[in-house]
Amino acid sequence: MKNINENIKKYRLEKGITQQEIADKLFVTRQCISRWEQGKSVPDIESLEKLASILEITVSEIIDDESIKTLTINEAIINRKFKKFIWTSLIISALAVLLTIIGYIVINEQYNANKIGNIKNTLGIITEMDTITEHDLEHQIIKFENEENIYILNISYFGEVKFFDNKVKSISYHDLKVGDTIELEYRNELKSENVTKINVIDSKVEKSLIGVILVANGETYESIEDIQRNNDSGLHFYLFEKENNSNHTITNMGLGETKSNITYNGNHFHYDFELNIYFDRAKIINDVVIGLVYSTGIEYVETIDIAYLNSQNRIYNGEMDYESQNIYSVHSADVTYEVNFIETNTFSSIEVYEYDINHNLIKTTSLNFDDYFNFNADENAIYSYIKVTSENDDYYYREVYHLMVGEKLDIPKSDEYGLVINTTFFYHSYSPKN
Hints:
Elements: H1 4-15, H2 19-26, H3 30-38, H4 45-55, H5 65-115, E1 125-136, E2 141-145, E3 150-154, E4 162-164, E5 170-171, E6 181-187, E7 195-202, E8 209-215, H6 224-228, E9 235-243, E10 246-251, E11 258-264, E12 269-279, E13 288-294, E14 297-304, E15 314-321, E16 332-343, E17 349-355, E18 361-367, E19 383-391, E20 396-404, E21 408-414, E22 419-426
Parallel strand pairs: 4-7, 12-16
Antiparallel strand pairs: 1-2, 1-6, 2-3, 4-5, 6-7, 8-9, 8-13, 9-10, 11-12, 12-22, 13-14, 15-16, 17-18, 17-19, 19-20, 21-22
């Protein structure tokens, strides 16, 4: 039985997934995945379960007897530390409760004194979370509610109120919108004249940007359903949705042709997506149309002439709304899609020249796109030379690669409209046991 590190690498390669793609889905670094595959460290049980889900296998297919021992020891150490942490937390919590009771008694005494005018601003500023349900500029009122109460404030009674958006940028009350989640600060009692600051924790998203499509076949797609139920040539799409702590991606682009990056500024996410669109100019017959996929439908934003496909990158910005278990927390993110067009040659045929251990040519095999997926190396072959040929009306373009048995080669393949995905040729040898 293989060790856990060998199993992780084996199943990852079989799925054709890179270390970086696994790392992105597990929210760890690529170096962490590399250490697992080198046997320098072992993933914990939670990471194993997520890894098995990504590789579409069971946990038992990854781990071996020695790994079970290691995981058991690690979990025991963690549990022992956790128990120590629990006892420490209980002691700290008890002290905190005692201090809170003392503080409550002192504050109540100060509050009673404040009511008769002997103490100034003793209670300081009260902060609470609310959602704006009405913003009437004509009558100068803001209506908002929390889990317990509904309030209506008169804007004209506001004093020196400061307004900030969710990026801590100064705004005015005109910029507030129905549906915004706000942090309201006021003195002593919630009245219009007591409000000191309104921070927008989460701005209402009018339309949620969830993806990009590129159409080279002349068709028009109106909705997400249109995209998902079509497997058309000349269509590339990338869709991303977030729900609580889960991310969902649907794409028909090849592995390695999309990259993502997440940044967090303290209370707000920013998602950056880089889409590398490979194309074969000789096979492009229509202008390429770019559409932004919103929750409300698809908006086509740009038509690119064939001659200018790889002239510059395209940047598209928007916001994405997602469900959150807490309605008073952040439930939107900024989104940026960068679309890069990259010209490449695509193959029309493959020839495989196989050699044995004595460097003798065993056989030559010609393959096309329909049958190279099922290619099986000769059982006596040690290595091969792979000749990849691209052709169009004007020229032939050939490249030769050297592969040992067990290695693989990424080969670009174009559809009939010139959009390209990177496919993988596996030079493997499978033979039944006697």
